[in-house]
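Objective 1b: paired records.
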Amino acid sequence: MAADLLIGQAPSAEGAARLAEQYAVCPHVHLIAAFGTMLVGVWYLPEEKRWWLRLVAEHPQVTLGLLRAAVYHTDAAAYPETPVRVLEKCEGPLAPCGSDCRACDHAPGSDDEAPCSGCPALGLVA
């Protein structure tokens, strides 16, 4: 099972805590926490959605409002072997984290060459 580790620095401890709370409901997040101004998260993302974390690493200010961020990827997570969260579909235009994926350049139906297949919690399909 592939996993990604995000380590980022927010402008403030309050900002890091707000991001941790916001993304705690993401069905791809296995762990997310704020340690002062540091934000640490572990994501279990399918390959077609990993572009999002790469974008966070390249543009932390634009994507999450972080001062800096690093993302580390492994294709061999020892534990857990499979994600522990059950993906539940939800209603409405917003992802569980509060993002409006319809406004994204990678949204289904966009002109992007490799559009995102959408948030699995919303049931969006390209």
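Objective 1b, second protein:
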Amino acid sequence: MSQEEIEKNDKFWLYVGCIVLSILATVAVVRKSETDKFAPIKQQLDEEVAQMNIRVLN
């Protein structure tokens, strides 16, 4: 293999690594924003469950 082919191969894996990293970062950001968006709804549901969680004694 010539020096030029080795350099192209090295850049190929660098590009693949950058693409994978950017995809993972995008997924993490979207997931975080979705969690933040629905946090008030989850809190409200948890409060409703806590209010309904009463024991009935005979």
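DSSP finds two helices and no strands in the chain. Helices lie at 3-37, 39-52.
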